[in-house]
Structures are given as C-alpha cells and as structure tokens.
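Summary for the steering committee. One of the milestones for this cycle was to obtain a three-dimensional model of the protein with adenosine-5'-diphosphate bound, which we needed before selecting residues for the alanine scan. The sequence and ligand used are listed below.
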Amino acid sequence: MSDASFLRMRGISKSYRVTQALRAVDFSADAGEVHAIVGENGAGKSTLVKILAGAVARDAGEILLDGEPVSVDSPLHAHRLGIYAVYQEFSLVPHLSITENILMGQMPTGRVDWWVNWRAAHRQAQDILERIGFHGFNVRTPVARLSVPHQQMVEIAKAVAGRPRILILDEPSAVLSQEELKSLFRLIRQLRDQSTLVLYISHRLDEVFEVADRITVLKDGELVGTVRPQEIDEDRLIKMMVGRTLDEIYPPRRSQPGAEILSVRNLSKAGAFEEISFSLARGEILGLFGLVGSGRTQVARCLFGADPFTAGEIRLKGEAVSPQAPTGCRRRGCRLSHRRPQAERPGDELLGPG
Ligand SMILES: Nc1ncnc2c1ncn2[C@@H]1O[C@H](COP(=O)(O)OP(=O)(O)O)[C@@H](O)[C@H]1O
Ligand SMILES: [Mg+2]
C-alpha cells in the first residue's frame, strides 16, 4: 500500500448505535485492479463500500482519490466522481422498463430536451446489455417482471452505464447461475483492463481466487491485511477471516438425530423437478443446495403446501400429505421463510419446521 494508490480510505470508523461496524480502517486500492474484500458475515464489508459510495455516512476518516481528499456525502456525489455500486439490496424502480432503469438520469433526448428519444434509448440500453454479455433481454419490459438474477444483471448494467472509475459489486454472485457468473467475470476483467477499479465482495472464496488481483480481509470491523491470491491458499485466507482453522470452525457434530419426521419419496412436479427423495429426522438440519433455477424453491414450496405436486409422496410425522391441497403441512407445523429482495420471485430460501 503506497501513498500513490488511486483510492485511499484512511482511518474510517463507523458505528450503528452499539455496534462498531468499522474501526479505523485503512484501505487502499489501485486503478485497473480487481480488489476483493472478504470477511465473515458482519465483518463490515458492506459498510466500508457503502461509505465509499456515499450511501452511508462515516463517523471518522477520509477518502482520497488520486491523492486528493473527496467528499462523498451522497450516491450522487459518488456518481460524479465515477463511483458506482451494486448492492445485495436492489435499487431498481419496479414499474419502469429496463431501459429507463439503466439510463436513469441520462436518457437521450430529441431536438427539444424534454422529448425523450425512445428508439435511441432502447438501443442504448440494449447495446450496454449486449456489450457486457447479458443477452436475451427485451429492454421495454418493466423490471418487476424479471427474475432475481435478471434484475441483478440490470442493476450491474445500470452501474456500468455510468462509466465507473470505481465499480463496487457487493455479493453479486449470490443470485447468479454459473453461466451468468462467467459473463460477469468477463465484464469485470474488461473493465479492469480499461483501468476501472473493481471492488468485489464475495463469501465464495473460489470466485475470489479466480477473479481478484488482491484480497483485503476484514474481521470484526478491522482490516486484517491485504494479500495477493498467489501468496496464500484458501485455508490460510479463512484463518485470516475468522482467526481459526476450518477444523475449529466445523468441529465434529455431536447431535444425535431423532425419529424421522419428514419423508419425501420420488416427489415430482411437472415442468419443475422430478423424483426427489430425502428424509429429515428430528434435530437435524438439512441443506437443499443447487444453482438458481435448479428447483430448490419449488421443492420447498411443495413441502410447505404452497404448490401442488404431480407425483410422489410427502409424509409428515407419518401422515401422507395430499398432492392437490397440501395445506396439511402448514397445519402440522411446517413453516417457510425466505428472503425476497424487492422482487416478485423469492431468491434464497430457508425451510424450517415451525
Ligand atoms: N443499518 C444498520 N443498522 C444497524 N447495524 C448495522 C446496519 N448495517 C450494518 N450493521 C451492523 O454493522 C456490522 C457490519 O455489517 P456489514 O457492513 O453489513 O457487514 P458485512 O457486509 O461484512 O456482512 C454488523 O454487525 C451489522 O449487524
Ligand atoms: Mg454485506
């Protein structure tokens, strides 16, 4: 970290009431690099980048670009300085089209400046999406009708449309499929090669190792250090993040699962998933893992009784659940809770017995 860094954040502190989210953090990054920021949940990653993007006010510290102190008191200030951010929470206007969201505040006008040149606008929005490798969008569609991954891509396109000098991506991969992630990485490298600083936050370390030029680790609101991926392996990075090794984080489990309470046999729903079988015992935590679109949510919805299923069997505490009107699950204490990031469709989901 030299004084000549393109971006310097010096002595950044922030607390939310009793929580000290950041404690005198010194962070530097260069133009033309992909700089990953990693750390456990609650380490302060989002707070740090939100301060840089003018979305959160810092309590102390200063921000310098090219050695000059700058003030980023609002996202608009940040945009003027070329700092754009894509957060876990989206900022799209649901009833407006993809075009309007991407070109917000910079719509092309006709001969008189209150007249929007829609043809040019749609073409521009389409161009931006194509250029960054996101295909198959109808830019006239209101974003409320898009899936969560597609909303994420529009959000990214909107940031890229601002021609960022600093692009912040806060956990962008959480909702993207493998294919979409590849396009995103291509875009990130393209921007880096055009001298953009890309700040990439992720909890998936394999991604971080793949895309980052440098990695900064935060822990409990403090900066632990900055490393290059060539100098470190995943185990040691995790040790920096949590201060313990993997064996210590995941000690052998001692819980003794009890009787079977849920049994799912050859569960199928036409067009959604086929022949899913598993069982769950009392005291057990079962993970349902898969990429976006693989059918996790749809299985969960059938279990919960929100959707009918077409074949197979669900037995809850020994009793069969009716495939057409599966409300019995709810009566018997099955609860569904999911994160719904300002969209029509649930993103990640959690299923727990109530
Ligand atoms: N708006 C907020 N109000 C209160 N506490 C917050 C708020 N945002 C974040 N925090 C707290 O600040 C700490 C750092 O959060 P955050 O920056 O979101 O961490 P990360 O992104 O690394 O998971 C956490 O303890 C979190 O609970
Ligand atoms: Mg975060």
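Key point for the committee: Residues 45-46, 170 surround magnesium ion (ligand 2) (CB under 6 Å).
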